[in-house]
Amino acid sequence: MNENRRQILEMLAAGKITADEAEQLLAALEPGTFATAGTFTGKIPVSDSSAESTVKTRAKYLRVLVEANEKGEPTTVNVRVPMQLLRAGVRLASLIPKQAHDQLDATLSKHGVPLTLSQIKPENLEELIDHLEDLTVDVDAKEEKAKVRVFCE
Amino acid sequence: MIPSFAILQVEATHFHMPRLWLPLFLLWIPVILLSPLILIVILGLCIAGRINPWRAIAVFWSILCNLPGTHVHVSAHDSKVLVRIL
């Protein structure tokens, strides 16, 4: 029995966790199962065997990569933003006064972006960020010779 | 964790700047010394803008503390800009 499994069973025996929680934790130790959402796949070594269990970890950064070729000259943009900074940035929207919200919403919808900023609330924030972790956007415009990748890591 | 260093590098056709390590932690000395004045200014601005000042401070502090790890690298033609916050 490996150390992680033993710890889980000890916690169950001590009544610190329920049988369901123990089952979830044991399942997370099994190879090929995923503990949390995210796109980066890390590996946790298992002490008593050569096998390694694969557990998904939370994405820490949002990466935007742009490769373009303008008039034969290569242009590259590589931006990495911490996910926590995105969380803080969304909270900043809650400080914007209502009048400014209305004006922003009107301008955004005028330009074809039907987004209501007032709907972005702190309680919806975690869900938004969690879904962002599963996001991967690949744009390959052959005519423009541009390639855009947006993903979490 | 508040940002302690920023790395800045700018390169252009006729301009080459070595990679600069900017010690941001040194900025905290004047900020701490001027903190009473800064607090009054923030309170005044928040009252004028009808924003909860404590919430505003919390949000800006959160943004500041989450800046480390930010990396921006733009390269076009003969120009290159690199900004990293550590």
Shape of chain A, please?
Answer: flat
| Uncertain stretches of 5 or more adjacent residues of chain A | 32-55
Straight-line N-to-C gap of chain A: 32 Å
Oligomer: heterodimer
Evaluate the radius of gyration of chain A: 22 Å
Helix content of chain A: 25-40%
Structural class of chain B: alpha+beta
Extended strand count of chain A = 6
Task: List the defining traits of the structure above.
heterodimer, A: 153 residues, alpha+beta, four-stranded antiparallel sheet, two-stranded antiparallel ribbon, 5 helices, 38% helix, B: 86 residues, five-stranded antiparallel sheet, 31% strand
In short:
The complex is a heterodimer of chains A (153) and B (86). With 153 residues, chain A is of the alpha+beta class.
Characterization of the model:
The complex is a heterodimer of chains A (153) and B (86). In chain A, helix 1 (3-13) runs antiparallel to helix 2 (19-29) and helix 3 (83-93) packs antiparallel against helix 5. A four-stranded antiparallel sheet of chain A has the order 4-3-6-5. The radius of gyration of chain A is 22 Å and the shape is flat. Residues 32-55 of chain A have low confidence and may be disordered. Chain A has five helices and six strands; from the N terminus they run ααββββαααββ. In chain A, a hairpin with a 2-residue loop joins strand 3 (61-70) and strand 4. With 153 residues, chain A is α+β, with helices and mostly antiparallel strands. Chain A has helices spanning 3-13, 19-29, 83-93, 98-110, 122-133, and strands at 40-45, 52-57, 61-70, 73-82, 136-141, 146-152. By secondary structure, chain B is an alpha+beta fold. Chain B is 38% helix and 31% strand. Chain B has three helices and five strands, in the order E-E-E-H-H-H-E-E. In chain B, strands 1, 2, 3, 4 and 5 form a five-stranded antiparallel sheet that branches. In chain B, a hairpin with a 2-residue loop joins strand 4 (71-76) and strand 5. The longest helix of chain B has 14 residues, at 35-48. Chain B is elongated and about 45 Å long. The model of chain B has no long low-confidence stretch (mean pLDDT 90). At the A-B interface, strand 4 and helix 3 of A face helix 3 and strand 4 of B.
